[in-house]
Structures are given as structure tokens and as C-alpha cells.
Design brief:
- The chain is built from four helices and five strands; from the N terminus they run E-H-E-H-E-H-E-E-H.
- It is of the alpha/beta class.
- It has one domain: Glutaredoxin, CATH 3.40.30.
- The longest helix has 16 residues.
Amino acid sequence: MANTKEVNNNNFNKEVLNADKPVLVDFWAEWCGPCRMVGPVVEEIAKEHDELKVCKLNVDDNQALAANYGVMSIPTIILFENGEVKNKVTGYMPKSSLVSKLGLS
């Protein structure tokens, strides 16, 4: 996770909601197979999109935050801009599909 930052209940507001650029947050859990599949895809996006901050949030450790953003299944990837949810994608998909659905170029 060289290009991603772990976020949690303690730093979510600072790192995500008050960020000075768009933030992509991967809501995941260690036991989730599709989460492990999408992890490297999220890493690639982090490397290729300098305009984004990319973070990972473990839903097992931060259940209230996950519930607050309507995360009902994982992986869920949410794009935040100016502290607001701009886009949300659930489930594994190839990088090209994920980038397209999130509206990244």
C-alpha cells in the first residue's frame, strides 16, 4: 500500500472530508476475497492518478463510518470531492471498468 493511506474513525475527517483534492476510499475487509482482488487495482489507480488521494478503510474496524456511507457490501469504492460523495461503486471489476464508472480519465 505504498501509494495509499489507511483511514479510520480518528483521521477520516482530516484525510478525506477536508482533503484539498478528490479522495478515493476503498472500503474493504481482510476476509473479503473480492477486496483482495480489487486491492492491486486500487494501487494502480493511486500510482496513475496524482490528482487523487487514495485511502483504504477497514470496515471491520470502522463499522460506523461504513454504515454512515451506506456500505452494505464490500468492496465499495467511494470518490469524495470537497467532502461530498461524488461517485460510488460496489464489487470487483477490472481497472478499466472501475476507472470509467468512477468518472476518472
